[in-house]
Amino acid sequence: MTNSQGGPSLPQERRLVTAIPGPKSTELLARKQAAVPPGIGTTLPVFVTQAGGGVLVDADGNSLIDFGAGIAVTNVGNAAPRVVERVSRQVADFTHTCFMVTPYESYVAVCEQLNALTPGDHEKRTFLVNSGAEAVENAVKVARHATGRQAVVVFDHGYHGRTLLTMTLTAKNMPYKHGFGPFAPEVYRVPLAYPFRWPSGPENCAAEAAAQAIDAINKQIGAENVAAVVIEPIAGEGGFIEPAKGFMPRIAEFCRENGIVFIADEVQTGFARTGDLFACEDEGIVPDIICTAKGIAGGLPLAAVTGRAEILDKVHVGGLGGTYGGNPLACEAALAVLETIESDGLVERARHIGGIMLPRLRAMAERNEAIGDVRGRGAMIAIELVRPGTTEPDPAAAAAVAKRCHAEGLLVLTAGTYGNVLRFLPPLVIPDHLLEEGLTILEKALATV
């Protein structure tokens, strides 16, 4: 038996009553294939009917452990009580007016909170949009307008979205860019400090990568032509690469020295995911502009651009906006998410999750040479799989392990420029016993590669 609704009151248990996927999900998958283009892929073809806490319940009654959180979206859990309450109240009042036509208080309240909570005590402004890609694209637009420059610098292994500009900013060709050119002009890519794969070793990674990146900017572009540098504090789709300590502070310093807008893409890392409210805080970095989305609104579509007032205030009236940006339902959800993170101690909870997962994963790596690297912070953790005894990426092993986990009722996601990374993004409200059970399933799956 299952509850009549989702949320944290769902039984927090893994329960398999059919094969994965079961017959009802298989029937729905056939309908999806007939109605939806194949370019919209599916990681695990089970059709969810309820979710909450650390589980997903599918149409066949299977209850799966969730190590994905909708790709770092449901940090506070699915159908989180405060989100449900505030959104339900708002939907009965009004669903839309367009903030640019007749505004409403919740939009302003979200902006006020983001201005207060994001790194730095300088005066800030925030505006709201629909998605992470839209936030990044708008941040670049603002930086170009404010500086009068055109060039934008991004990094190897970065991912920033699927619009024309953000697809251009993204490093990985397949599946994000292949066949979709020509791309936007004036975008330049420089090295990222990737400790596991740095040729002279992780101890040299930060200094050498920063020097190479800065040298490339100066020689190939000219710092005086650069409007913005865009970077993920932890590269998400690129494989949860945490840049070597010291790399990002040096890049931020270079930006300050040269009047370049430093944009932190915290779309995947934000809202307590890494054990800080924002990942930039780990090294004390204060970005000029910070882009947030995903975990901001508990599953409702919302994103934000928050930045220095002197930068954002330069844009003329009407230069920013969008019909649905800051929809009132999403704004109420965001206010509920921020309240939940603070009231339920989810920053500390993310650190606790890391304290459970990282030691077990490192112990697995000691016993299994296929695990080349264990990395991450808080509840944003990954393992990189390689051919034993080498650093050669093994995407086939990653796919096989993920498939075995899925069959056993554990949702895991793959990632990485080379497709060889398993990434773990459990909801921050997942109970400890599901974390431990999920890790046991993972360990058994890894033993087969």
Structural summary, described in words:
Helices cover 37% and strands 16% of the residues. The chain is α/β, with parallel strands linked by helices and 449 residues long. The chain has a seven-stranded mixed β-sheet with strand order 4-10-9-8-7-5-6, with helices on both faces. Strands 1-2-3-13 form a four-stranded mixed β-sheet. The protein has a four-stranded antiparallel β-sheet with strand order 11-12-15-14, covered by helices on one side. α3 (81-93) runs antiparallel to α10, α7 (202-221) packs parallel to α8 and α12 crosses α13. The protein is built from 13 helices and 15 strands. The protein has helices at residues 23-35, 69-72, 81-93, 105-117, 132-147, 164-169, 202-221, 247-257, 309-312, 328-343, 346-367, 395-407, 432-446, and strands at 48-52, 55-58, 63-66, 124-129, 151-155, 187-190, 226-231, 261-265, 289-292, 303-308, 371-377, 380-385, 410-411, 413-415, 421-424.
Provide the structure class. alpha/beta
Low-pLDDT stretches = none
The overall strand count is: 15
Q: Approximately what portion of the residues adopt beta-strand conformation? A: 15-25%
Tally of DSSP helical segments: 13
- Work out the radius of gyration: 22 Å
The major pleated sheet works out as: 7 strands, mixed
- What percent of residues adopt helix (DSSP H or I)? 25-40%
Query: What average pLDDT do the residues reach?
Result: 97
Give the end-to-end Cα distance, rounded to a whole number of Å. 36 Å
Helix and strand succession? Answer: HEEEHHHEHEHEHEHEEEHHHEEHEEEH
Strand order within the widest sheet?
4-10-9-8-7-5-6
